[in-house]
Amino acid sequence: MTSYESGGNRLSGIAGRPAATAWPGGILQVRVPLPFSLKWVNSYLLRDERGYVLIDPGLHTDEAVAAWKGVMDEHAIGFQDIHTIMLTHQHPDHYGLAGWFQERSGAPVYISAESYAYTQRLWGDDGGAAFAADLTALYTQHGMPSQVVAALGPHLDSFIAKVSPQPQVQFIEAGQTVRMAETDWQLIDAPGHAGGQLCFYAPDKRWMICGDQVLPTITPNISAVPGEDDRQLKRFLLSLRELACYEVELAFPGHREPFERFGERAAELAAHHERRLESIVLMLRESPGSAYSVCMRLFGERIAGDAHHMRFAMSETLAHIYDLEHKGLLARRLQEDGITYVA
Ligand SMILES: [Zn+2]
C-alpha cells in the first residue's frame, strides 16, 4: 500500500500521526481529532478540476476546527474550494461539522434520507427529548440501574453543540453514481452500523470509501435503538457479505488508517459477531439475567462510569440479544422489574 506525505508534514497531535496524508488519485485523508477513545475520524478531500468534495468533515469541537485550519493552510485549500460535502452516515463524529463547512463554503450537503431522519430525531426540533425518553425507557426495561440511566440524558444533550450549526441537506441514495476525484463512484446501501449509511465504490480504481461499515483494527458498533427495527445485526452481517463481493484494492474507512484486504476484514467482523452471539448464549445458559447484566459481563470495567461507552455497549448487547431471540436461542421473561433472558 503506497501513500505519501505531502506539504510540511504537519503532525496532528494524534499518536504522532500527520494531520493529513495524501493518497494517489487526488484523495487527501484528514485525521480530525475526537474527544473519545476513537481518537480521530477520517475526513477525505477528493480533488477535481473544480476543487474538492469533502466527505465526513468530523465532530464540531474547537480541536477539530483548529486541525482543519492547519490542514487547509498547509495545503492552500480555501473554503471556496470545497464545492460539495458528502456524508456516509449520520453519526455526530462524521456529520457534526457539515453545517459549519456549509456556512463557509456554500457547498451543498448530501446524505441519505434515512440517515438525515435520524439526525432530526436526535438533534431536531425537540432537541432529542423524545429519543432520550425512549432510550432511557428501553434501557430501564432491560435492567439498567436508574443512576446509570440518569447519566444518559445529559450525555445525549452534549452532542447538540457538537453538530451545530446543522446543514441544509439534499438526498442521495444507493444505486446512484457520483463523480468525485475525476472518478465514478457507486453508492451502496450499508446498513447495520447506521441505518441509511452509504459506501462509495470506484470500480475503475477498486477503491471503497466505507464509512464505519468495515474498520481495519476495531469493530464497528452495532446498536439496537428504540424506533428502529430490531434486526440491526442481521442487516449488518448481510451487508458485510454483500460488500465482500466487491473487488477492493484500497479501502478508506471512517476510523484508523486506509487498508487493503477489505473482503477478509469483512469476514473477520462477521466472525467476531458470531463468537459474541455464542458467548451470550453460554452466559445466559449459565445464569439467566437482564440485557444489562449481559452487557456488564461482556464489557464490565471497561465501560463503568462512562456514559458514552455505556450507551454503545448496552445497545450493542441488545442488538445481539434480539438476534438470538429471532433465532429462537433465547427466551425473554417479563418480570416485575423488567425483562430477563434465558438460553
Ligand atoms: Zn458511525
Automatic annotation (TrEMBL):
InterPro entries on file:
B_lactamase-like_C (IPR048933), Metallo-B-lactamas (IPR001279), RibonucZ/Hydroxyglut_hydro (IPR036866), Sec-metab_biosynth-thioest (IPR050662), WH-like_DNA-bd_sf (IPR036388)
Residues of the Metallo-beta-lactamase domain: 40-255
Q: Name one GO molecular function term.
A: hydrolase activity
Q: Which reaction does it catalyse?
A: 3',5'-cyclic CMP + H2O = CMP + H(+); 3',5'-cyclic UMP + H2O = UMP + H(+)
**Keyword terms of this UniProt record:** Hydrolase
Q: Name one Pfam family in it.
A: Lactamase_B
The answer, when asked if Magnesium is one of the entry's keywords, is: no
Task of the protein: Counteracts the endogenous Pycsar antiviral defense system. Phosphodiesterase that enables metal-dependent hydrolysis of host cyclic nucleotide Pycsar defense signals such as cCMP and cUMP.
Designated name of the protein? MBL fold metallo-hydrolase
Source organism: Paenibacillus rhizovicinus
